[in-house]
Amino acid sequence: MAALGWLTPRRRSATARSVLAGEASAEAARKTSQDVSDQEQQFPVHGDDKAAAFFDLDNTVMQGAALFHFGRGLYKRKFFETRDLAKFAWQQAWFRLAGVEDPEHMQDARDSALSIVKGHRVSELMSIGEEIYDEYMAERIWPGTRALAQAHLDAGQKVWLVTAAPVEIATVIARRLGLTGALGTVAESVDGVYTGRLVGEPLHGPAKAEAVRALAVAEGLDLSRCAAYSDSHNDIPMLSLVGHPYAINPDAKLRKHARACEWRLRDYRTARKAAKVGLPAAAGVGAVAGGTAAAIALHRRRR
User: What is the pLDDT of residues 75-86, one digit of tens each?
Assistant: First the structure.
């Protein structure tokens, strides 16, 4: 899979870890999909098997960050103490207000996200994810974005989630929505048990674009005929990769960029929420950071 990176041109540079993370995510998504079973400009086109759609998850398909809701589920299951939940909530608020990645926070988030799964079985995370989806996520799906995804499915196209959340959680959500599969952060596992190491880096920013690029090569897709949807300026690399980019519930930076590039915009928030577009969504690294408290709580419980 590592040899696939040179087959399609890159519009912007990506680190070796971004490429590795993207290609690992694409490979994991294809393996998983084998196990799971308003359209401007005539798009999606019926019968176009060279086209597919890629949807960011947090605040694009679902209100809030997937790992935040996952953390709520873990708290309910006594994985959290109150002080951990407070830290968890503070991290989410910080990323919403700042809208930028702090290198130290990024490293802390990465280390903590790994500790949440180290020593646990993949099947355990999937099982918990199924329960938490029903409890906290199902009612938070944006109907408008869901309708867009369904339009692609009805046209015979494959539809993939693309998220910094663990690929196992993303896969649960994709399956529940009837989508093809999910590209997500890949944690290394041996014999079904997580090792505590990451394959590449979190699927964020340029890594998302690399995942989409690698999947397009493997699936024989023409990216100029594909669509991508996101709320965050962090996903501009992914949106720039396809011929049909959409800004969904966009943050201020993405809205400005989308208007300059004449990308299409959709906003499914209420008027009050949309007016607060200057507060960036807790996406990408924010979602990864949101799992920090969950990781700490799980680590303490295992001691």
Answer: 787 765 666 556
